[in-house]
Amino acid sequence: MIQKNEGPCSVQNCDTKIGRFRKFTSLAYEKAQKMGTYTSYAYLTVGQQICHKHYLSIVEPNRNQKLKALTSIDIDKENVRENSIEINKENITCGNNYIIVHFFIV
Hints:
two-stranded antiparallel ribbon; elongated; 17% helix; 2 helices
């Protein structure tokens, strides 16, 4: 039989007694260290239970954050030279973790 996570939250000064709780697993520990959030909660150990709100803020702080859309590029017109590269929306490709600027030398 699987033990249900029913709290309480192991984060200091957390009063959450009802709601969703998560177990602080070894994978959660690794993610928190990778994200740099574990240093603020170094007293937590694998196997403890934490509320869902703290789980998201410690283990997955970047969850549901989307990359900002590339809407414009500021160019210092005074420093543009005669043989400069023109950058506009047509020659830019955006991915999840990258931006590619396509250009041709004429």
